[in-house]
């Protein structure tokens, strides 16, 4: 039997505002339901452009990224971090089209300045300002969506505590064009391990896998934001949310993107809230240290069936 192609939801979260003070209570509750539904069914959705993140802010960062990736390799490799995938990534035979930098807490101006001076000792105020401004705006969006998630389950009173135990990393990414007339993999299929990911791109290329295994190509309007559920939020939801597997497929055009990743603080114990487990939803995950989970994942990175969050922290349910 022929099936209808699945479509990732496109949400207008700010379409029904109450004057200049944000959404009305009714519209807020409706938006919370939409976000929760998308997280449960797809683990991904697209937020259409809105004034909260001005388009020129993100486009300014995209323009500033081009000189960054043109720097000498020895300079780029100064972006180091003891945590896997938190610093510079590139020059890889596995994903030769992919290159990226990571900046922890780029919402803090000092962190943005430190990274900028590492790349340009003489300074680059325009890049620094673009990096910091974009990070701050994306974090505002991430926190709004995370608040919607908490409110959708009726536990909004736990949101502030959750936020205090998390931080963020901004990754700026470049994908080279496919070297042939055929499409090529820019980034291998994977799930994110963090809480939420907010992506923006100057060219399409992202594909998201549905629960039934179909790859869905995303081509959102310019200025949109792609929201992806990470494994940590799936655990928090006691398995209600789907951590979407995704990949990047390249054509004959190079692609720049940036992503804000909300991440549990080092040493914070991730656990399912008591309100998320009941007789209909038995507890699926035991409390765990996120940093230890990341170490576990990378220790078995070549064994995808053994490095899942279920293998690390799952509870068997009879």
TrEMBL record:
Keyword Oxidoreductase belongs to the record: yes
Tree of life domain: Eukaryota
Domain Fe2OG dioxygenase: 165-264
PROSITE patterns for the chain: FE2OG_OXY
Protein keywords: Iron, Metal-binding, Oxidoreductase
Job description of the protein: 2-oxoglutarate-dependent dioxygenase essential for auxin catabolism and maintenance of auxin homeostasis in reproductive organs. Catalyzes the irreversible oxidation of indole-3-acetic acid (IAA) to the biologically inactive 2-oxoindole-3-acetic acid (OxIAA).
Name this protein carries in UniProt: 2-oxoglutarate-dependent dioxygenase DAO
Annotated source species: Aristolochia fimbriata
Lineage: Eukaryota, Viridiplantae, Streptophyta, Embryophyta, Tracheophyta
